[in-house]
Amino acid sequence: METLKTILYFSIFRYPLKLEEIHSYTNYEHLSDTENELTHLIHEKILTKVDDFYVYGSDLDSVIKRLRGNLYADRALKKARKKARFIAKFPFVKAVGVSGSLSKGYYDSGSDIDFFVITQPGKLWLCRTFLMLYKKIFLLNSRKYFCINYFVAANQLEIEEKNRFTATEMKTLIPMQGKAVFEDFFRKNIWVNDYFNKFKPNLSAVPNAKKPFFTKSVEFAFSNPIGNGVDMVFKRITIHKWKAKFRFMNDEDFKIALKSTRNISKHHPSHFQKKVILALNTKIEEVSDNYNINLAKEHV
After folding, report:
1. Position 107 pLDDT exceeds 80
2. Which residues form the Polymerase nucleotidyl transferase domain (predicted)?
3. 64 in a structural domain
4. Which of 8, 75, 211, 254 is 20 to 30 A removed from 275 (C-alpha atoms)?
5. For residue 172, how many other CB atoms are within 10 A of its CB?
6. Model confidence over 38-49: pLDDT tens digits?
7. Which residues, 6 or more positions from 74, have their beta carbon under 8 angstroms from its beta carbon?
């Protein structure tokens, strides 16, 4: 029942999928295998088909929601490409991609444009600070079109949390700048194929980031022991601030949602990953109770 778990996952976001999309999240070789399973689920009244979309339960309005979100996403993606080119010009940025709801083709009035940034090793916190200062000073701290909440350094590209949430984020990530770095990134995260064996990212249209003279000058000025020290100072300041601000979080959640190491910086105080996995497991229990279908639960 690979198709059902995929549909349950996306139903958390009220985002129904089409046949080809569902198939891409399964390990079935033939599209007909996916279609046959979906037909069975419809016959058992677990799913409903609305036009080309497969809906879990009776949430038929989710189709309209998705279509509207797809329309707005096309516009938002154009803005995201411009912002990605701009972010790529900052010191120590090696690659930029778009994640979150926009990477899945959805955007609405409550959405942000989430950027995933790969930095030069040893300069992650310097890079993050430069970008955050720009956001606070020039964008008045608005994150609507400039949400930069996940950084990794180019010498630690393998994502440590390996679960359905992170695998889905990897599969839907849209690389926008830094082709060569993203090639290495996806090689280091081949584990995604354990979840989705048809995962084959297409990087043919992704340019390598180009730096202006000013950026190169800043990078040169901080490419020394002093720059390394400043990087560590920014790291300590940020962690101290987060521990004070999010003191309600337990240590385990803090280490995942606000992971802060020399080569990783995450700022997900709502711990969305955990919420999604727990919501999925609740739906898995619901299917087991109502339809006697047993699916393996996911881990955070």
Report:
1. yes
2. 79-123
3. no
4. 75
5. 15
6. 999 999 999 999
7. none
Q: Are residues 37 and 116 in the same domain?
A: no
Cα separation of 192 and 186, whole Å? 9
- CA 176, chain centre distance (Å): 14
pLDDT digits (tens, 9 = 90+) for 24-34: 999 899 999 99
Residue 117 phi/psi, 5-degree rounding, is: -120, 130
If you count DSSP H runs as helices and E runs as strands, how many of each does the chain have, helices first?
11, 8
Half-sphere exposure of 149 (CA within 13 A, CB side): 20
Chain position carrying tokens 């083709």: 105
DSSP run (H or E) holding 48: strand 47-50
Alpha helices (runs of H) in 213-271, residue ranges in sequence order: 213-222, 225-245, 251-257
Q: Which domain holds residue 119?
A: 82-269
Q: Above 90 in pLDDT, residue 16?
A: yes
Instruction: Tell me how many domains the chain contains.
Output: 2
Q: Are residues 122 and 208 in the same domain?
A: yes
Q: Residues 156-182: what's their mean pLDDT?
A: 97
Q: What would the mean pLDDT of 275-290 be, rounded to a whole number?
A: 97
46: three-class secondary structure by DSSP: coil
12 and 41 in a single domain? The answer is: yes
Q: Which of 156, 151, 206 is nearest to 182 (CA)?
A: 206
- Tell me, yes or no, whether 219 lies in a domain: yes
236: number of Cβ within 10 Å: 11
Residue 72: predicted pLDDT: 96
Tell me how far CA of residue 98 lies from CA of 116, 194, 264, in angstroms: 6, 23, 17
Residue type, 248: F
Q: Amino acid letter at 276?
A: V
- Whether residue 71 lies inside any domain: the answer is no
